[in-house]
Amino acid sequence: MMRRKIAGQVSLEDLARICPILSRRNHPEFEGERQIEVEVAGVRFGAGVPVVIAGPCAVESEQQTMELARSVRAAGADMLRGGAYKPRTSPHDFQGLGLDGLKILRAASDETGLPLVTEVMDVRLVALVAEYADMLQIGSRNMQNYPLLVEAARSGKPVLLKRGMAASLCEWLGAAEYIANEGNLKIVLCERGIKTHAASEYCRYLLDLNVIQAAHEETFLPMIVDPSHATGVASAVESASRAAIEFGSDGLIIEVSNYGVEAGVPRPLCDADQAISPATLRRIVAFARNREDDSNADVAGTHAGDLTRIR
Ligand code: PEP
Ligand code: MN
After folding, report:
1. How would you classify the pairing of strands 38-40 and 159-162?
2. Is 115 in the pocket of ligand 1 (CB under 6 A)?
3. Widest CA span of the chain, in angstroms?
4. Site to substitute for ligand 1 among 137, 205, 254, most atoms within 8 A of C-beta
5. CB-based contacts of 190, cutoff 8 Å, min separation 6
6. With 24 labelled, which of 201, 221, 276, 294 sits at a CA distance of 20 to 30 A?
7. 232 lines ligand 1 (CB under 6 A)
8. CB atoms inside a 10 Å sphere around CB 279
9. Percentage of the chain exceeding pLDDT 90
10. Per-residue pLDDT, 172
11. Contact predicate 193/209, CB 8 Å
12. Does the Cβ of 140 fall within 6 Å of ligand 1?
């Protein structure tokens, strides 16, 4: 009997066709574990040492952002994150400070020397956000906003492409291909948790650790993990970060707050329950930097397959 053909259904076998630019299968020069490096103002993703991006969920004030930028730099972060334009569930919730937020972020980045990544949600704002940011973030909700991907790619800036919360690996890499197709290969993928029936009962999303190795097998792009949105729980962020690094993540993007650490710091307006302290960030950075790479360890009695890691 002939197998039913289902419209739109794709599998990893189709990736060479969907993503001729980005599929590892089409590029013998990227045989095995070779990756490209993506440089953002001197910070290199995919160069062997995990990159740690940290900062607030949203810019709320100049003081909050400047002080937090100093804290995350002191904790060892490589880059600063923070949203000036926020995708919120309700239009009545804090939407971000917009242009004022971009100016504050730029000042914080300049003072600390930490390159800045910030989200752009609107195709009309790409040029403006690109004036202030070192890297453009495409959020989970916009992963398949193809005109936005094209415009972000044309800015020439490196792009942090978050995984759609319900996206398959094929759909995610297909979205990345839109950026590559504009001649911009400065793409870093970011796993940030997916929707499942279980997630939302005891966590915000489900952190898909499996996709780290799968993505490394299918493409030569670096990929990082967002343990903050993936768990939604501050106490889970350190473990999730360590797990992601163990699975070969090229970096982390983490939400941090000084709330409860320093007197007078207000509770964040956005995602307060997943924000970790700078002290916890410092431990995560130390783990990411010092992890011994034992991927080639020859342990007697170990099945060779057990040691096969993509990174
Ligand atoms: C964020 O990083 O601020 C964010 C909104 O993340 P996501 O798009 O993954 O939900
Ligand atoms: Mn957030």
Report:
1. unpaired
2. no
3. 70
4. 137
5. 160, 161, 162, 163, 223, 224, 225, 226, 253
6. 294
7. no
8. 11
9. 86
10. 98
11. no
12. yes
What are the CA-CA distances from residue 62 to residues 101, 113, 267 (Å)? 8, 17, 15
Does residue 302 surpass a pLDDT of 90?
no
Range of the domain at 174: 35-291
pTM reported for the whole predicted model? 0.95
The closest of 87, 16, 77 to 43, measured between CA atoms, is: 77
Distance 58 CA to ligand 2 centre (A): 7
Residue 311 has pLDDT above 80, yes or no: no
CATH assignment at residue 185: 3.20.20.70
- The DSSP secondary-structure symbol of 256 reads B
Total structural domains within the chain: 1
Q: Residue 119: what are its φ and ψ, rounded to 5°?
A: -80, 140
**Two structure tokens written together for 192:** 């940030």
Residue whose CB lies within 8 A of the most ligand 1 atoms, among 144, 226, 231, 253, for a mutation test: 226
Average pLDDT in the 194-201 region?
Answer: 87
Q: Determine if ligand 1 sits within 6 Å of the CB of residue 204.
A: no
Residue 300 counted as domain residue: no
For residues 202-223, average pLDDT: 96
The answer as to whether 11 is a domain residue is no
